[in-house]
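Sequence, please.
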């Protein structure tokens, strides 16, 4: 089948996105046919591969799924769907075994039991890890190897989905564009079952830990097709991105604070002791705001691992040690300069317990979705867990739609070119309209917000959308997601979890003890009134 007739058939389920959620779903669908669209080669550009902490799962002695769900609810600041939390936590051990069976080399002790880390807001050690801080990379490596040898999975690299295709009120596939050709006629890929697993929106912010291509495209596409969006205002800012001139910012995993690393300012003050009983292991939103306020008041913030880890950081946390070395920092002798950075989106396309969106024919999983698990503030290492649980649920839900197939032939005329791909990404990142949008989001829709700033952000987003030269569908997906985040943040007149309003600093359980749901027309109305 050729690309050049501009219409292709997925010959089975179609998965948009090649992170952990999408690839896990593809493997769970096997041997039923599935086509996976990946704008880059597998393993590159997926947030899953950058995850350092691990997978939260109640597999340790004295732990339980119920306790895991309780911790999830507390971290989520009152609006976690507890039934979802209980059911996800109950599936965790089974999904960990899936990952182990497919080759993930989880850390184990001499008795073969999982080595478990403790991260912020967990009451016990329950984060299953790999080589200290390499969980995401090693899980993805194992999963990709399994995908590559599964003949019923067709992987298409170098094609970016930009629009969902609708017919008679149902999603019937996607429109995509080839690498480096943003203005060409889109390619239509037909499918009876479309799974959107294309990540979050951290790249909408100027300072982020997310891969460069993660800029809200999934939520934007779905919203423009009419999907219901939930909890768009809840963006989690990781408190300890390493402060360098790199974009994206490298991450100093929360597990370091679980080991005893402390936060201090340039006056040597350990400020978290006065802010929360759990100090550095307080929920992420609290630590991020504390760091933000230190920096806003002219202080510098450092993560000090010297006493708790010393030279051990070089072998126990090789990813962080390498990031430090690249920035000229010696974490054995020096403190690590850190700053808050956009890290994870708790909101997304609203789905039910089986991953079904409000649009027939469309399932959503991973960071692109809003399952109700995270509430207002994701519990550490619940993201990879959610990805595999809902990837499996979606596969079971849609598995009966397609017959078993031996193998799928590749699409002709679509491929990835490293040099061209890097050049395309660099051009997009440096577009004035993209830079302006990212600065607007960081300055006005960031760690702390207020009505005046949010209204100004909405006005700027509308102006950028109207005046940017050669506006592509990709950019429109970005401004759509940015609009939804800012509009939902303006609508929620309280502070809760990752959403903090300086003009409404208190949590209002009487009026806001619920999820925010919004369609794009509703968000555009709020934007117009701003």
């Amino acid at each position: 089948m050729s690309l050049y007739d501009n219409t292709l058939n997925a010959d089975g389920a179609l998965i948009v996105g090649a992170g952990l959620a999408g690839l896990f779903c593809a493997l769970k669908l096997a041997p039923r046919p599935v086509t996976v669209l990946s704008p880059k080669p597998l393993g590159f550009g997926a947030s899953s591969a950058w995850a350092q902490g691990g997978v939260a799962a109640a597999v340790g002695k004295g732990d339980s799924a119920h306790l895991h769900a309780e911790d999830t609810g507390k971290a989520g600041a009152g609006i976690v769907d507890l039934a979802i939390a209980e059911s996800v936590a109950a599936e965790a051990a089974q999904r960990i075994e899936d990952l182990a069976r497919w080759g993930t080399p989880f850390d184990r002790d001499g008795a073969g039991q999982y080595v478990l880390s403790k991260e912020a807001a967990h009451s016990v050690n329950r984060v299953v890890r790999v080589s200290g801080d390499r969980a995401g990379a090693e899980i993805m490596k194992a999963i990709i190897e399994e995908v590559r040898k599964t003949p019923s999975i067709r992987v298409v690299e170098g094609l970016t989905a930009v629009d969902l295709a609708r017919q008679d009120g149902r999603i019937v596939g996607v429109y995509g564009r080839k690498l480096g050709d943003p203005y060409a006629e889109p390619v239509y890929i037909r499918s009876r079952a479309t799974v959107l697993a294309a990540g979050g929106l951290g790249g909408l912010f100027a300072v982020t830990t997310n891969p460069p291509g993660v800029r809200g495209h999934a939520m934007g596409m779905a919203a423009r097709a009419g999907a219901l969006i939930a909890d768009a205002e809840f963006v989690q800012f990781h408190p300890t991105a390493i402060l360098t001139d790199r974009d994206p910012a490298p991450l100093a995993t929360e597990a370091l604070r679980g080991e005893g690393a402390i936060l201090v300012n340039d006056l040597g003050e350990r400020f978290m002791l006065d802010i929360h009983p759990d100090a550095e292991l307080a929920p992420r939103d609290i630590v991020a705001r504390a760091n933000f306020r230190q920096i806003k008041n002219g202080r510098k913030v450092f993560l000090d691992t010297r006493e708790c880890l010393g030279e051990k950081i070089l072998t126990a946390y090789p990813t962080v040690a390498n990031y430090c070395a690249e920035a000229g920092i010696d974490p054995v002798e020096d403190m690590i300069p850190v700053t808050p950075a956009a890290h994870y989106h708790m909101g997304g396309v609203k789905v039910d317990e089986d991953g079904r969106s409000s649009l027939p024919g469309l399932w959503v999983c991973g960071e692109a979705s809003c399952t109700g698990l995270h509430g207002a503030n994701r519990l550490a290492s619940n993201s990879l867990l959610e990805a595999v649980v809902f990837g499996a649920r979606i596969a079971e839900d849609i598995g009966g739609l397609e017959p078993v197939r031996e193998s799928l032939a590749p699409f002709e005329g679509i491929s990835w070119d490293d040099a061209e791909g890097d050049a395309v990404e660099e051009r997009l990142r440096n577009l004035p309209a993209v830079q302006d949008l990212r600065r607007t989001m960081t300055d006005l829709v960031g760690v702390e917000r207020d009505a005046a700033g949010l209204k100004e952000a909405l006005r700027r987003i509308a102006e950028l959308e109207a005046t940017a030269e050669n506006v592509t569908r990709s950019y429109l997906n970005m401004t759509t997601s940015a609009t939804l985040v800012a509009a939902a943040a303006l609508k929620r007149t309280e502070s809760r979890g990752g959403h903090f309003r300086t003009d409404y600093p208190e949590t209002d359980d009487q009026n806001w003890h619920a999820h925010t749901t919004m369609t794009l027309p509703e968000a555009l109305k709020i934007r117009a009134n701003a």
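The chain has a mean pLDDT of 91.
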